[in-house]
Amino acid sequence: MIRALLWDVDGTLAETERDGHLVAFNRAFETAGVPWRWSAAHYGRLLEVAGGYERLLHDLKHRDAAPAGSAAREGLARQLHRLKNGFYEDIVRAGELPLRAGVPELLAECTAAGVPMAIATTTTPSNVAALLGHHLGRDWRGRFAAVVTAAEAPRKKPDPQVYELALAALGVGAREAAAIEDAPAGVYACRRAGVPVIVAHSHYFPDAVAGARAAGPSLGSGAGWRPAAAVPGTRIGLEQIRRWCA
Ligand code: XBP
What we know:
The protein is α/β, with parallel strands linked by helices. Helices cover 44% and strands 9% of the residues. The protein folds into two domains: 4-14 and 99-245, Rossmann fold; 17-93, Putative phosphatase, domain 2 (DNA polymerase, domain 1), CATH 1.10.150.240.
């Protein structure tokens, strides 16, 4: 029986990669005066590298215009990442990152049903606080029994650390929880932690990932899910998640 729900953040709660982080990275490049920008397609490829700082560092290694020494590259990556996170918060506060369809309803359903929830993300904690504070209000933290971010789980997905810490904080076994994810790295992290996972595909991760209990285009509708949702017309709720994980 599923007794707790674990939420990934980027791409799952909102389209944060396409509409938030990418836009913010490019604003950071402009502000720092570096001569390159990331296209949407290039960013899609860079998403194979987990972590915004790590992603920057990876990209800098392949740029002629970037500093040649590793210490200088790391310094620049740190500066750009800090700037990026500031711009990301501005984007959230400007209301440009709405929650994805079905997310507010599933959050509310869990709260009403007394099903504990955790955040399980390897993004920077300030990004999570900005997004959830904007959408759920100043007391957003109280809606979650545990919030695990890159601060607590430095080993990024697909490492299972973030899910293992979330389970321990909730005090539930892996099979007593279900996770909502969008990306292959998140699905692998869940599988390695033994947590059943439901995938709501996002802009950058539209393809099937092996090992998910179910996958579909949106929590906002029962249409297009594999395996099929019991009631295709309605949003994905706790009962449906429990069926898929049974
Ligand atoms: C998503 C990530 C993050 C974000 C950027 O992790 O890989 O790095 O893309 O955020 P998850 P930061 O799927 O665990 O949420 O710049 O804060 O790393």
